[in-house]
Amino acid sequence: MLREDLNHPELPGNKWRKLKYNLLEARRLGHDTLLTFGGAYSNHLAAVAAAGRLTGLRTIGVVRGEELSSRPLNPTLAQARADGMELHFLDRATYRRKQEPEVEAALLQKTGPAYVLPEGGSNLLALPGCAELVPELAALTAFDALCVACGTGGTLAGLLTGLAGQREALGFAALKGADFLRADVDALTRQASGLSYANWTLLTQYHGGGYARLSPELRSFIQEFQHRHGVLLDPIYTSKMLVGVLDLLNRGYFRRGSTVVAIHTGGLQAWAGFGDNPT
After folding, report:
1. Which parts of the sequence belong to the Tryptophan synthase beta chain-like PALP domain (predicted)?
2. What share of the chain in percent tops pLDDT 90?
3. DSSP string of the chain?
4. Order of strands, edge to edge, in the sheet holding 145-150?
């Protein structure tokens, strides 16, 4: 297991890698504000808010769904606000149209100029940060396959550009009905490198019932894994990926004697959204 959850104390996992070159580009373009999107328990919103606090950038989070004034903010959004993020709530119908130019223009008219990051942070500048993981890992150990959880597909696309067609990559979708990710990942790698890679597979059967669904079986798996290995998994991404990896091992998917690296992409702040600790 590659412990990317330990790569930064406040921006752990793949979020640090996806934000790295976007933050540099925002500075290069003279922006002092980041605007981005996410659900109410988004790791990405939490990471952007922390990045803003660490770098002195103003941050704006556009949250899917209308704000309920009768309820306090959930732990993820409360921490984002504590980190200085301004929260704007968008009804779900409009949120689905967030990439349309007129919707973005209306948001920027309200907030002022900003460097816009997509939901999940998956754009072309996210890829080189994730690609850097490959030579870093290769300097530590020889390996035959990389396994990573997928939400928007940006991390997987970055790994593919880093692998450059060598070795194998497996993406484990955390969302139900995520077949669309194949086209999204392929589009990102084509834009980044001009190439469409064949050395990867997207597995969509390990979603555990859907995004942010924590079944009793998955909770038990997380508890047992932590007891056995001393590693806490997040309930949305890495835990589902590891269920899949171990299932593939049991099925003899990987060549005997090969080295398979599973990437822990962080996301432990998601536990706050479930109101408890798995242990």
Report:
1. 3-266
2. 86
3. -EEGGGS-SSS-THHHHHHHHHHHHHHHTT--EEEEEE-TT-HHHHHHHHHHHHHT-EEEEEEES---TTSPPPHHHHHHHHTT-EEEEE-HHHHTTTTSHHHHHHHHHHH-S-EE--GGG-STTHHHHHHTHHHHHHHH---SEEEEEESSSHHHHHHHHHHTT-SEEEEEE-STT-TTHHHHHHHHHHHHHS----SEEEE-S-STTSTT---HHHHHHHHHHHHHHS-PPPTTTHHHHHHHHHHHHHTT-SPTT--EEEEE---GGGGGGGTS---
4. 2-3, 260-264, 145-150, 168-173, 200-203
Residue 244 and residue 143 in one domain: yes
Q: Give the model's pLDDT for residue 101.
A: 94
Residues 165 and 208 in one domain: yes
Instruction: Give the whole-angstrom CA distance, residue 203 versus residue 165.
Output: 19
Overall pTM > 0.90: yes
Claim to verify: residue 102 and residue 132 sit in the same structural domain: no
Q: Which domain range does residue 206 map to?
A: 2-8+124-274
- Which of the four pLDDT bands, split at 50, 70 and 90, describes residue 189? very high
pLDDT of residue 203 exceeding 60: yes
CA pair distance 34, 80, nearest whole angstrom: 13
Q: Which residue has the tokens 């998955």?
A: 218
Average pLDDT over every residue of 88-106: 94
